[in-house]
Design goal:
heterodimer, A: 114 residues, mainly beta, 7-stranded mixed sheet, 4-stranded antiparallel sheet, 11 strands, 0% helix, globular, B: 109 residues, 5-stranded antiparallel sheet
């Protein structure tokens, strides 16, 4: 098991609502990346935070936003939820941003939008 | 479009046999690849990685082969065990991880 934790484990929301997902990175890691994994698909990169600043973003609309805190934990916020936002949301932490760094994944938060 | 992809969505092998999972990529500039294993209800777990200056790398019961000429990599699992049943992803790491769609490996008794 990695030292990355995520909360909550499962969540059910209604279309149009807002949601906040949380991630605690592995000790000593200063970079957190968020991924969306739809059923039967590979994880898709949402964005990365390095030392509290966004450090790269995938092809996701602005209603997906994030924060990283001084202790390097992170939040993913999604506004105006849509049915297609139903997925497993994964965070991964690493020692530093950039290439060639192993990323350690948490267990994910399963979001269901009805 | 997708820059990494797996050849087969499912693979079934007998316990004790060797497994080979294949992956293709399109970006010839990719220089770092990782194989992940994802069990049901869990996040992806690092298995093994390889950099573009290598053709082969071995771990415990696993070997990754990289063929840069045809932009192909494979994961070989020796003496496959029931605990190896999972979805396997190859990913390229260029600032962020780009995953393929995964191969579901089922180990038959």
């Amino acid at each position: 098991e990695t030292g990355v934790t995520q909360s909550p484990t499962h969540l059910i929301k209604t279309r149009g609502q807002q949601v906040t997902l949380r991630c605690s990175s592995q000790s000593g890691h200063n970079t957190v990346s968020w991924y969306q994994q739809a059923l039967g698909q590979g994880p898709q990169f949402i964005f990365q935070y390095y030392r509290e600043e966004e450090n790269g973003r995938g092809n996701f609309p602005p209603r997906f936003s994030g924060l990283q805190f001084p202790n390097y934990s992170s939040e993913l916020n999604v506004n105006a939820l849509e049915l297609d936002d139903s997925a497993l949301y994964l965070c991964a932490s690493s020692f530093r941003a950039g290439t060639s760094e192993e990323q350690y994944f948490g267990p994910g938060t399963r979001l269901t939008v009805t | 479009g997708e820059s990494v992809g797996l050849h087969l969505p499912t693979l079934s092998v007998q316990e004790g046999d060797n497994s080979i999972i294949n992956c293709a990529y399109s970006n010839s500039a990719s220089d770092y690849f990782i194989w992940y294993k994802q069990e049901s209800g869990k996040g992806p777990q690092f298995i093994i990685d390889i950099r573009s200056n290598m053709d082969k790398r071995q771990g415990q019961r696993v070997t990754v082969l990289l063929n840069k000429t045809v932009k192909h990599l494979s994961l070989q699992i020796a003496a496959t065990q029931p605990g190896d049943s999972a979805v396997y992803f190859c990913a390229e790491n260029a600032r962020q991880l780009t995953f393929g769609s995964g191969t579901q490996l089922t180990v038959l008794p």
